[in-house]
Amino acid sequence: MTIAPELKPGNIVVLDDLPAHRVVSDLLTSLALAEIVVTGWEGVDGDDDEPAPVDRKHLAAFLQDDARLERFKELAYGEVFFEAVAAEAAGLGTA
After folding, report:
1. pLDDT of 15 above 60
2. Nearest CA-CA partner of 56 in 23, 90, 28, 19
3. CA distance 33 to 45
4. Engineered SS bond to 21: which of 15, 43, 50, 93, CB 3.0-4.6 Å?
5. pLDDT value of residue 5
6. What is the pTM of this model?
């Protein structure tokens, strides 16, 4: 699945197909979360065979693989959920 090349600032993407819309929404939501929670990585090479910087371009390329996207969601959303539960338990959550 290759979605990100069409999703650039200024481009308008019309999705008449609801499942396709959900795929794009899922990828963009995961990308936004990845930009917040990913601080470094190993084994992801950039264009010059050096470690890739953790930026939107490389995160999007990394998450375009279905298996990596699903694993990221399992780990990242789980972490966000548990942090929210812990904050709520400590009385820090929003009601």
Report:
1. no
2. 28
3. 21
4. 15
5. 46
6. 0.60
The two most distant CA atoms of the chain are separated, in Å, by 48
Q: Tell me the percentage of the chain whose pLDDT exceeds 70.
A: 77
Helix (H, G, I), strand (E, B) or coil at 64: coil
Helix extents (H) in the chain: 18-37, 56-63, 66-89
Helical packing angle, 56-63 and 18-37, nearest 10°: 130
Between CA 72 and CA 79 the distance in angstroms is 10
Question: Beta-carbon neighbour count of residue 60 at 10 Å?
Answer: 19
Residue tagged 């990242």 (tokens): 76
Look at residues 1, 4, 8 and name the one whose alpha carbon lies nearest to residue 58: 4
Instruction: Name the 3-class secondary structure at 13.
Output: coil
**pLDDT on residue 1:** 41
What are the structural domain ranges in the chain? 4-89
